[in-house]
## 1
Amino acid sequence: MKEENINCRVEFHPQGKSAAVPPGTTILDAAIKAGIAIDAPCGGQGRCGRCLVRVEKGTVTHNDSSYLNSEQIQQGWALSCEAIVASDLAIFVPDSRERIGLGDKITSRKAAAPPHLDWPLTSPVSRLPLTLSPPDLQDNAADLDRLRAAMAAGYQMENFSISLPLLRRLSRNLRKEKWQLTLSLDTRSREGEPRLIDIRSGHKEQPLLGVALDIGTTSVAASLVDLNSGRLISQASSLNKQRACGEDVISRIIYSERSGGIKDLNRLVIQTINDLLGELTALPVSPGGKGKIKATDINYMVVAGNTTMTHLLLSLPATHIRQEPYVPTATHFPMVSAGALGIKINPEASIYCFPAIAAYVGGDITAGTLSSRLFQNDELSLFLDIGTNGEIVLGNSDWMVSCACSAGPAFEGAGVNCGMPAIRGAIEDVIINSRTLEPTVKVIDDVLPQGICGSGMIAVLAEMLSTGVIDKSGNIIHEDKRNSLIRTGEHGKEYVICRAADSAGGKDIAINEADIDNIIRTKAAIYAGVMVLLKQVGISVTDIERVLIGGAFGQHINVESAIKIGLLPDLPWERFHFLGNTSLSGAYNALLSPEAQEMAEKLTQQITYVELIADSSFMSEFTAASFLPHTDPDNFPSLKAKNRRA
Amino acid sequence: MTPLQIPVEKWAGKVTEVKLGGNGRKDITIGGENTLPFLHFEGTFPHQPALAIEIQDMEPDWPADLLLSWGDAVKDPGQWARKAAEYGADIVALRLRSAHPEVENSGAEKAKRTVASVLEAVDLPLIVLGPEVAEKDNEVLLAVSEIGRGQRLALGNCTDKNYRAIAASCLANEHVAIAKAPTDVNLSKQLNMLLHEAGLPMSSVLTDPTTGALGYGLEYTYSVVERLRLSCLSGDEMTSTPIICTVGEESWKQKESRSSQDIPESWGAQERRAIIWESITSAILATAGADIVVLRHPRSVELIKEMNGKWLSMT
């Protein structure tokens, strides 16, 4: 009966239930005793952060869990699986939705901000209303001369160029609305004089629009923008239709070498772009507004794509990008008109393609670097773009180096049996219960899962490692034959992430040893690239002050898991920043600001390219990184400390 | 004139000592050195590099000259082991070649019988090597592990794909595992890390870095062995396991050791050439840091013994 006295009373709110437990019990066990189910998908191992509760009264003993910082502990937050009852307690149990939110914040997952304009806004296209005096017998100058005279008088702009198709429409447009015209002039033309790109009769106000485009090997994303205000009207993305001709740039280039190959690939990307434009223009001009957007109101387009994608957009031969010594046709591309490419906007509209740095560090990285503003910052920053390939830029305002690692498209869903891009229905996070090995998944848009995307792969790998499903080499080693989640399937040993009954396709979603191998090779290529680049400039990992992560994939990635599998360098979490689709936001900046466009051109001169293939240490770094997290645990001191504690 | 000052490096680590045999049988300890090979002025070598002689569980498909040097002994593993002991082997290395699916596909029973007869015939420490087909290796080595319980055999090979069963069995029956990775310092270290995670202490592991014979990748093996040793001496326990090189097998595989076709006459008679090939490969790997070399020809054993003796007595 003595024991009764030393028991602590733990009350749970808002459920209003309580339990008496001896000191030393975890809050989770107390909750179970009180008949309250606190969700602990990791099995009470202090790994998932989903069992957070707030201590409202009394004292608990905290384990030095990585999930909580001192401020959060101060506020009373505790991981119920780890916090130990030390006195009578009053505990607040937040509902599960709120808890997930908290857990997310703590693992520093952050969605990307909408594009931000970092440069002074000057529209690349000017809209000029103009009224001409009609000709008569005394003044029967040609229509074009009349137009030039009026431009000189009204806008001090006599010299401009005009294309033959526009000239053909001039006389009719002049006379349609009593010599009233609205002209669109491209003021960023490279010929030194503005270029007339549209002549419309009358003085009707019409939107002046532009499009920023990111052409990725896997997916294409576009932003429709009001050129005068910089306002983002809508955004859309879709898979690149070229995927039918191969998943990575190398297979695309090989396809392009067939007869008619370039033509096919070019047609597919133009189709992808036109479909996206159709989607963007299907919306009203403004929310609730009636006027539909006309594709012909789109008067400028900026494209950021890797070197191969840009070549295929422009129908340039890409063969030599693939072959040593990896020479593209061009890194700086001529301005082309939309009409010449078959892009369905104003056919006279200019299309600016971001210049590339090298064969495998393309315009998407120039745009990404522009958007990261790495070159404006004294702090040593590592910019990582993780897409179908991994590209890296390291440096600060004084110097920059870059390299490309042939990481492969695993994180975008290719080459992994149940892999898919990070779109609706993709598993983006996984927690495995270490006792039952039962997985809990988080799916984009909370629908039934179809497959697993890059961030889910990173999470599931980290979880399988933590729970002993796999060894550090990625072999599935758990040998509990009664556990139906680990089994030998048609692709060899596999772990079931989602059972058929819980999946959209009615089929098990599983990850097999070949998938794991693929993911390990991908992460190793990226990490090895970082290490070689650091070595080239004589800098150690810990000198990196900021890690900026771009790529569509960079929006969901969980830093802790990524460090645990050795994808990201082991640095304090606050040094990681997620920038979202930096290629697209770079394109957005160049669309709206000539200074940004100029900076992009300069960046290609300022960034020194390092060819990893020519670096003898890359293979060794790669093999060293093909392990979980790494062959040299000294590179991952935080994980070593954690292992000791366990 | 000032006398030459030989720079002396102070290393943080040393090679882990691994003991084979014992429990009524002769034992041998390898490893323990705290400096690079033969640098007497810098550190100590508590144990000499060991010489193992390879025997097989069936009549081997070796070149005639090599077979001749063993006579009828090759027909019986026990007798062969006794002869190897006579020729000065520190360790007998038994290759269970007949277990290979494309040779005889013999199984656990034959392996047990053969090993029992060799253990009976000699009191030297024993290395038992499977046919290097992961599945078969597991089958025969686990059986051998059982009957050799307590004799501290070295069982090989385990790779990153099949290490778990062998490691568990070595742990249960007090044997040493030979960890073989394909000529890469990182892969060898990773395998040791996996074995370590599986509970096997480094004092129960030997590293086979995959040997390339003279003219056939020797420089790669040299570099890997050297890098493993430098890493070990710098204090990394996961690369501190003693190194075993299967020199005989690799060097007798090459055409220079097997025939005289297309070989310049000035390279000498075939048997002599083959012995030199094996001895040179062995000597070079010893200077890189190999702790055990497995040889085939009695004359090579003699030569390497002599060389080791001279090098170790130099001060």
## 2
Amino acid sequence: MQNEQAIGKRSIFKTDTKSLIGAVVMGIVFVIACQITGQIDNMLPWGKMGMLLINGTVWAFFTGILTLLYKQPGGLIAAEVEALISIMYTPLWPTFIFANGIASIWVSFVAVKCDMTKWSHHILAQGGVCVLGNAIVGVGLVFILGLPVGVAAVSSLITIAVTWPLATLAQKKVYDALMKSGMVK
Amino acid sequence: MFRLNKLDPRLKLTWCLFLVLTALMSRSILLNGILLGVILISELLSEKSLKSFKMLSVVLLIIGSQVLVINLIFGREGELLYSWGILEIYSGFVATAILAFLRIGIISFSAYQFGIHTDPMDMAQMLIHWRIPYRYAMLVPMVARFFPVMIGEYQSICNSQSARGVPNDTVGEKIRNLPASILPLMYRAMRISNDAALSVELRGYGRHASRNFQKKINLHPLEGMTIVCLIIGFGGVLIKTIL
């Protein structure tokens, strides 16, 4: 009984139907948000140079918050829904499959080890999401788009530097609001 | 008559993976050109037009032109052609940009072709054949079902904002309005998913170990042989690239 309670407190898994369907529907919202921010980025100077900073922030925020909300496999499902639907608008989709998956699993591990009440927990969670995700996308920039390694590395580093603080801020604010509303227990 | 949507989803997935992995492995412009041509011909034979690729082609042209410009400015392959201050243009940028363009074309068109010519129910059955519980496999048709619903919800939120006179023309206004359009969409998504979860549970979703389908997928022996040929073909490309 004590073991069950302990697992229930900080479990990595949540396999009820509500979580699974919620992950699917929120995954679609994730896609819509990424498409809108991608279009906004493309209108801005950095977007024309291939750096999607607002899109990257929204991607990191959604990957983090959906994993905290639906745990696993919900977080992974939502992230992979985004990766698979991105086939329609980017050739980098093979890297998104790995980046989204690894980022979601990272957030789950952080959420198991930390109670996500402090800023440091969210910084750690988003740090992994931004660094791992952008590193994988950087590999895609080299192998799929054929960009020079230096350009891909600089692009990834700038994206990490911008998205990490912004996504952490957004994740902490929204997570605290969700906790207050009782949606995350 | 050849129809892509009549083929088994496992064959289509193998074909898609063969194209994507071969495009990633090979550095031959000729091979990548042939593969892209095969995708376009198969689409033409099946659908009699390339209309479905129109939107994606525009996106790929934009990305391809960005890749060309970046390679022109930062590419360091080949011989130095022109130098002016810090700007140096090398001869290898054209070949790199063409290869990248063919590669992104193959990767995007093959996956898009698989997506538009495969019924979500067939994908769910394919996953069930791979021993994935149907509670998870059936999420694929759910994505297809809820995608237009959520797009409609987003458009209705945008229309509501417009009716209230919220300006949404410049980039700055679009960024400012982002939380005002995404947060209500998240709230609606939560409401819809709660309702949908309750509905499917009341209909017995996940109660039984298996699920019946109206139309079952069957792998024809010829399709099975094609899958084996594709795997052997990819093995050949892999060995040729390594050697």
## 3
Amino acid sequence: MNVAIPVAEGLWTDEAEPRLIGGQHRLTGEIVFPMLQGDAAQHFDAFPLSRTGTLWSWTSQGFRPKLPPYAGPEAFTPFLIGYVELPGQVIVETRIEGASLADLKLGMPMELVLTEFAPGRSTFAFRPAP
Amino acid sequence: MTNVQIIGAGIHPFGRTEDRSGRDQGVFAVRQALADAGLEWTDIECAYGGSEGAGNADIMVNELGLTGLPFINVSNGCATGGSALSSARNAVAAGQCDIALAVGFDKHPRGAFNAKPGDWGLPEWYGETGMMLTTQFFAMKIQRYMQLHGIRRRTLGMVAEKAFRNGTLCDHAWRRSPVDLDTILNAPMVNDPLTKYMFCSPAEGAVALIIASEKKARELGADGVRIASIAVRTRPPGSFEVFAPAISVERGGKPTELASKAAYEAAGIGPEDIDVAQLQDTESGAEIMHMAENGFCADGEQEQWFAERRTELNGQLPVNTDGGCLACGEPIGASGLRQVYENTVQLRGRGGARQVPGNPKTAYSHVYGAPGLSAVAILER
């Protein structure tokens, strides 16, 4: 049971299998992530994104990002990030869980999970899909 | 457009100068450029300059003299120097003045640049979750490029090895010691596939260039280098840039490709005509990708170029002859002008131990930065 508090409101849907919330332009159909805020949002409707996609690129984060803005735990553990292409929608930047560098291959299937990136705080991530 | 020349070039050594402010380094560079051109500060009719993090440039008049000249502060991120040069060139070309100054300087704290999400129009969570680092972008861009175009890790190391080797021959470089390939490849990984030695560091330094109309340059008997073209471009739709929580599935163009194409067209020459090039090498992968984005080779051909050492000082197209950002560090406001400074040195044949042989006649410089902009300048002798 994940009781961690989301890092931000409105990033993903509140359902058993949460989806990231993007925005779709009403005229062009273009899909963006995250959903825009303020005046920029007026031509966009919220659009729940696919839970699965393919790995577009990746890297490791080998040193602790500066604080602020980084809000991860004091004891730094290197982590992985990447871009996952949600076919026909958008390519999102994300943390990568459940994999080591050696596992990652261009185009491999990935799926959305929620993860606790700091004590009591959750964010989204993708992991290799079974 | 009226022909415009660079008739004076000055530089404050890059690296760390603890007891000198960024702006004072700028004043140092201006004085050197004036001496190089054989001019006095009172001869400068207008000035453009700036820094990213070391204050306004126009306050330099306190040190240089209250001559009443118009002094425009430029604040354009990584293109600050390029925009200052472009503006100075345009002022001279438009006939507003005959002699103009472009100056850029900076002084950054140690460690990676620390960006605030709000300053970039991004939500706080993006920074909080550890995804807002410029180094990650560069790593992910080259990671994908390596997969698609067969670039090897060893080649990334060779870029850095060349940079440090060229830096040993350059008196304005920060890193002046060679680093061997194994050390580069086996150094701590910052962002896979890029190790510590494959990234440049934020630094300090300053560059000043004095621009004059061709008529004025002739009158002065100046050792001038002609500015054939300058192009500054921002990103087109579908590009992949620093600080992007998401990118479009419709892949598009790149700001570097746009700036490069515009600069070649305005100069009336192509990449095959260039004798020496300074390409943005924020990290090793950037130099490799920018070789292709600027039209010098096709994607993937860099492997062969490095195997044949074509970008060495004595190669077919020497690249980053002063060691680039990797050896000089990156004071943002000065970095793009350093490339133009180095090209001026090379075209004048004053490169000393790092001089490109064969009297180079054309030189190309390219800077890239957040949030997706690029500036290209082509010089001719």
